[in-house]
Structures are given as C-alpha cells and as structure tokens.
Amino acid sequence: xxxxxxxxxxxxxxxxxxxxxxxxxxxxxxxxxxxxxxxxxxxxxxxxxxxxxxxxxxxxxxxxxxxxxxxxxxxxxxxxxxxxxxxxxxxxxxxxxxxxxxxxxxxxxxxxxxxxxxxxxxxxxxxxxxxxxxxxxxxxxxxxxxxxxxxxxxxxxxxxxxxxxxxxxxxxxxxxxxxxxxxxxxxxxxxxxxxxxxxxxxxxxxxxxxxxxxxxxxxxxxxxxxxxxxxxxxxxxxxxxxxxxxxxxxxxxxxxxxxxxxxxxxxxxxxxxxxxxxxxxxxxxxxxxxxxxxxxxxxxxxxxxxxx
Length: 308
Fold this sequence. Notes:
38% helix, 11 helices, UDP-N-acetylmuramoyl-L-alanine:D-glutamate ligase, alpha/beta, 6-stranded mixed beta sheet
C-alpha cells in the first residue's frame, strides 16, 4: 500500500510487481506530476554499503495514503521507514502516531520497521525519543536494527562509539534497551544485530498478549522471554535488504504459529539467505527450503555477546 510517480520508474515498479503477483500492485497509487522515490545503493568490497536516496513522491506520503478499510481485513499491519517519510515524522510524529492508533483501535496487530535517520539531514534532527514515546503504545511488534535504535534513543552512546555500535554491545545493554521499548508499550521488541544475529525480548505481563490474539500466539509460550540467536554461516555477497528479509521472516513465522525459539531461528535463516545474493530479495528461498536447511544442521557463526 504505497504510491509511485507517473514516471518511467513508477511504471517499471508496477510492472515488476505485477509479474510477481497482480495483487501486489492493486493498492499502489499513481501520483500525477511527481517522480518516484528511489535509492542508489553502492556496495564496495570490504566496506559497508552507501545509500544515495531520492525521496520523490514519498515526501507526500501521509495518513490519507492508508486505506483503513483494507487494513481492517488483515491480521497484521506493517509499516516501514518513517525516517524516509517526512510527513510521518513531522510535528513529533503526529501522523505516524495517528496511523498506528487507528489501526491499533481496529484490533489489527501492528508492526513498525525503521531505517537509519540521516545524521546530517532533517530526519537526523528529529527528537526520536519523543516520537517513539508517542507511537509505541500502539505498536505491538518492533524490531529495529541496533544501530537505528541506539541512534534514536541513546544518541550520546552512538556519537561516542562513532556509530560502531556492534563493537560495544552486551546482553545487559540490549536488555535495558529492550526494556525501554517494552515500557513504552511494545509487546515484542528485538534488534537486528548483523553478524551477531538477533536479540528478542517480550513483555512480562501476559495481559499484553491479548493484543496479539489475531495471530493465535500463546501467552504462556511468549511472555517474559529473553532470547538471542547467532547468525548463520554464509558466504556474504551483499547485505542489501538483509534486515527487511529477517523482519519478514519473523512475521511469517508468527503467522505460521512457530514457537519463539523456532521463530527466531527462522528469522536469522531468512536474513542469511538474503546476504548470499547481491540484490535485496532473490536469495530468499521458500518456506520449506528454509526449514530444510535449518534442520540439516546449518552451522552458526562463533560470535558471542558478553554478559556485561
């Protein structure tokens, strides 16, 4: 559910999605006279990727672009990248909060994904602590990358570490960070940790899991958990979209009724498949192929998280 400009790129996007499944393009709006949003992603050897982004029509994405009648027919509502959508983070996230409040009140499970704010751009100047305090009471599942959430909630740490967050992590640090999100209102909080895998923590109050009833999750299984799963061993070709694929893997696992431990394992597996290809999605395999590789004894990396 998005929009594209009425330019060549917009038509290519719609055509590509129709090739995958005609239903994927049914809810895409065409914005006359506007250019489509796009990113140019550079992936040099032995260096982190560089993303050059043009906001295009995404500059105008707002509350009116969400068809709430369609959303009410879903079990799960997932929205991505407020830092790339200026109208959603404007006014301390008023529109972002309005979207999630309305979906939450309809009884649909809500999920929010982030991207790293641009330190030198408008999104990097936003008071993200305030934005998250406003919106997270209406967000059930929140799994940002650890770099994103440290930038947003603990900017002093981020600056002191010069953005090299992974090198300074411990279980105790992740625990307090996740507890902060759970206190703000999230039911399931977690962090994408790159080569360190995935960390997950859930709400201690079983009553909070009533919000996840459409997914059929057992509060007895899911409440008050702290889990970590290491990354799987792979030959890394590219990391574009790895976090998105991992998040999608987690949501798919929830919809399929996997246990917390199985869901986290599946999350890491989908992310691992992704990095075996240069692009953002072609490496991802089917549900059954992913499970087969896990059950065949897929080895994990030896990285560990210190306790303190």
